């Protein structure tokens, strides 16, 4: 039972923190080093609103929305000039993250009063379980389903996937690929802000909380590969399992480092991550089908 | 890269190179011993910058791991020199530190480059590696983390590390300055010369187009592993010298901001040009040193802003752009029509 709880906990953390990053990376090829700071921004907005008396779910949604708008502005101002220069965008987003982190510190000091974790907890046997944490796992699944729906069943999603596969053909078919990139970046930022809002009540709010998410989200994306949905969900699941196992048996630190070792070994064996693995299997199955016919 | 002939023409970069080397050699005659000692510290960051310039600027390997190798070098030197407890053996600790940094770099590189990992993913993996290492060292405060009598010390790191000795001769202040200066100059000149050799060209070829180099018969992963290993060794030297200079090393020397800062500095100065990397890292160290004594909280914001502006408007780096600007102005002034030399245009 406590394994399951721990797994849900890790799984939702990995998925929620990585999905925004992986959408931006998968669609645009841009590694957003300011991802952690976007999460931080979402957490700040949510906390401010929540302490001002806005109900928490509304505050979280506004936090996500605000971060999305901020991401859109950043994209128009900076990222849009770097669409074809992924390595330069790494340096630029690092600059953005420096400014955001230090700017927050200058504006609001080294920490702001947070909100407490809502919904209380219940216990089964010796274990004590937080309802909110379990809710987070449900939300993580819902986010995945929502992202799936948006990409597979809406017109915008279709255009986005077309841009991702071949931006020049997509734009010759009448898709405004620049607009798609901007929307993608804003959407990814909004998901980062959403993650920040969701986790805001569970941690103390400081300008550098982004770094708590950085490593986990990057590792998930590395192991997942370029497909934002399949990759992220599979790698979140596997890494969550590995991490829970190590944490339960050897402590938090072993969980963190173990995560990393697994990631490095995995990427050595399957260079394109889970996305590449799934693609290969799919191709093999198609070949078999054709062979039968 | 149009020319293949060995040539040293009189460009602003080459003049600056000579000036820098002369300035470095005579500096101790003009500054107080304290200032000279601080300059040896600046030089260690410059060596770290050169390691980035080598692997990223020359070969196109984007790594956030140099700070980790810096840390491995420093920690190894610290642990061994204290274990030996014999100052005459400090050079052995130096060599061991560099060797270990190189070995770890080689293993990591083997995993990455033979696994077909490239570009940003190398950056991500090296970043994860660096974070993991610094987190690990940060939690070694307990008494179970001891090697012999030497405690790893958690966030406080290792302290009271002896400085370098040659026999019974103590490398202090000015002597230490010259040791770091000579090492820095040697690496720097080697990098400049490398650019004019065949081996250097194969690195540049890999940077410009990996697939094409591979089709021309270069064993790209092998060359990448070698480059990454040498880069790790250079960063290791920087770490050893840093530990010997300050007599301490802490996990904050290899945390996320340390590892990204040096990449960012090299990018802003001009990554394809070791002179630019050298000037910019030293200039930044001097400015940061002055700012930190005045304690400005806006330093990081300004740094981030500079970075974004540089990437948007002078993607080849400030110093490189300055070199090019001066050269073309000089050419106009003299009316000569010579081809651009030295820095290659990409």
Characterize the structure shown:
The complex is a heterodimer of chains A (293) and B (346). With 293 residues, chain A is mainly α. In chain A, a hairpin with a 2-residue loop joins strand 1 and strand 2. Helix content of chain A is 77%, strand content 3%. Chain A contains twelve helices and two strands, in the order H-H-H-H-E-E-H-H-H-H-H-H-H-H. Chain A has a single domain (2-292), classed as ABC transporter involved in vitamin B12 uptake, BtuC, CATH 1.10.3470. Chain A has a two-stranded antiparallel sheet with strand order 1-2. In chain A, helix 9 (210-224) packs parallel to helix 11. Chain A has helices spanning 2-28, 35-51, 56-77, 86-108, 131-153, 155-165, 167-172, 177-199, 210-224, 230-250, 252-269, 273-292; strands spanning 121-124, 127-130. Chain B has 346 residues and is mainly alpha-helical. Chain B has a domain at 17-255. In chain B, 68% of the residues lie in helices and 2% in strands. Chain B contains 13 helices and four strands. In chain B, the strands form two sheets. A two-stranded antiparallel ribbon of chain B has the order 1-2. In chain B, strand 3 (165-166) and strand 4 form a beta hairpin. In chain B, helix 2 crosses helix 10 (256-269), helix 2 (33-58) packs across helix 11 (274-294) and helix 3 (66-84) packs antiparallel against helix 4 (90-113). The radius of gyration of chain B is 20 Å and the shape is globular. The N and C termini of chain B lie close together (8 Å). The interface between A and B is large, with 42 and 39 residues.
